[in-house]
Specification:
29% of the residues lie in helices and 24% in strands. It is globular. By secondary structure, it is an alpha+beta fold. Strands 3-5-8-9-10-11 form a 6-stranded mixed β-sheet, sandwiched between helices. Strand 6 and strand 7 (116-117) form a beta hairpin. The longest helix is centred in the N-terminal third of the chain and has 20 residues, at 54-73.
Length: 225
């Protein structure tokens, strides 16, 4: 008589902050934790979100989303995202605070599971300070995977960094003489940095509207049809 061999039930452990995992292991554990609101795999290390304060994260996040969402509403062929999972490579599956991607012919796609796969052209993060992971391991991962413009709002430092990828390196973009930074990827995506840091969202959107009215933006809209 042949005896059947019973396979032991394998327990999938929960995600823990600091776990070193492959992307497959990360996704397998994440799927077993539907209550979990945010977990990221950055350079093979698991980072799990903590409670967020409105002044230090919630409101800055909302302002960035409003700015990018307004640009999306007036621009053909682009898509913004809020805390979307992005599959970059075998060791990086971040959930950036905000992104802006070109829907057709861009660097990223929407895969069969509905996730962004590949590098969005622009990613924005709300960071505590210059010691944040956003300016270290995340920056390295985004740079290596070709995120063209990377924005970091360092709330405690009251600083805003806008990096542009050139020849494999992130180069900071500085405001012009009127205090405005202009995207090199998205024509018309203009930002009054001082107004943003001061919480003057009305001024931020006013400057964005100025960018939207430029011939460069109109040309970008036409080419995106």
């Amino acid at each position: 008589m042949t005896q059947s061999i019973t396979q032991p039930n394998l327990t999938i452990p929960p995600l823990e902050n600091g776990d070193k995992l492959t992307r497959y292991e990360f996704e397998t554990r994440y799927e077993k934790m539907p209550h979990l609101k945010k977990a990221e795999l950055i350079e093979g290390i698991v980072y799990m979100g903590s409670p967020l304060r409105i002044e230090q994260h919630g409101n800055p996040h909302a302002n960035i989303i409003t700015w990018l969402g307004t640009y999306e509403s007036l621009t053909f062929g682009v898509q913004s995202g809020d805390n979307c999972t992005v599959i970059l490579d075998s060791e990086n599956e971040p959930q950036p605070d905000a992104l802006l991607r070109i829907k057709k012919g861009g660097q990223s796609i929407i895969n069969e599971q509905g996730y962004v796969e590949g590098a969005p052209e622009l990613i924005a993060e709300i960071a505590a300070s210059s010691v944040s992971i956003d300016l270290h391991d995340k920056l390295k991962a985004y740079r290596r995977n070709g995120v063209q413009e990377y924005l970091v709002w360092r709330v405690y430092d009251n600083q805003f960094d806008w990096f542009r990828l050139r020849e494999g390196k992130y180069i900071p973009l500085d405001p012009n003489e009127t205090g405005i930074i202009k995207s090199e990827i998205y024509p018309g995506l203009w930002l009054d940095v001082k107004a943003l840091l001061e919480g003057n969202l009305g001024r931020v959107l006013e400057v964005l509207q100025q960018g939207i009215k430029t011939p460069e933006h109109q040309g970008f809209n036409t080419n995106s049809l």
